[in-house]
Design brief:
alpha/beta; Rossmann fold
Length: 292
Amino acid sequence: MSSSHSDSRKTVLITGCSAGGIGHALALEFHAHGLRVFATSRALASMQALNDAGIETLALDVTDAEAVRDVCKRISVLTGGRLDILVNNAGLAYPVAVTDMDMDAVRGLFEVNLFAPMFVTQVFAPLLVASGDARVVQTGSISGILPLPFSAAYNCSKAALHALSNTMRVELAPFGIKVINVCTGGVESNISRPYTMPDDSLYKSMNDLYQERRVSVSQEAALPAALYAQKVVAETLRPEPRAWMWAGKNAFFIWFMDTFFSKTTLDWLMSRKFGMDIFAGRLTAAHRVGES
């Protein structure tokens, strides 16, 4: 990794760049635009393709405070003390009903999805200030707006990230730092994982609907990550980027529904899309059988 300060390219650090994810696509797109990209993920091996493409890669667990500080020091040395763009992208999903949640897993999710963007921004703030015209890009989600069932922990973390972005936008503006909240819809990525309901779940009798309609729904007809990255990078590099942008499958539709319709309209849509109405019918039928 070159330590020369004579490199005049704009610099960008991206978290969560493992192969098959949004961060990986963003790294390639920023690189294609001629920026000096520092891609990070927990495992260097997961970024070999980026390294082969000439992108500088660093191992980083965003929940490890000392690791974040160490990477910041390395970036400062490599860039002469500045960073032009920080992309807080690393994230976890947890497709579990509120009544089935493991609270340690929820806390771990918040460490990655919310507390890490807070801390990473805090640590890299001096480098961003030194840029004079920096950007902080937050990978938000339409899940932070939707009453998406079996996703409360993720939904809450993204709603909180949206609030964080709004506040940072005001606080960092005097330093020439612009904050972009990307309200992300369906994008091809590796964030979704198979999940089996616990045997004692209140929702066990709808496991068939859960598997069919919820577990992998985000990947159905999702926007290719490369196309998503093109939209996000183009917006980020504008002289005056939007405070919020919407990108990915159903993103504009959710913006429209959230803006012009009541909250209960989204409840109705989510109930039918994910089979909660069918499940309610099953519960009613079972109750009648029990009474007979």
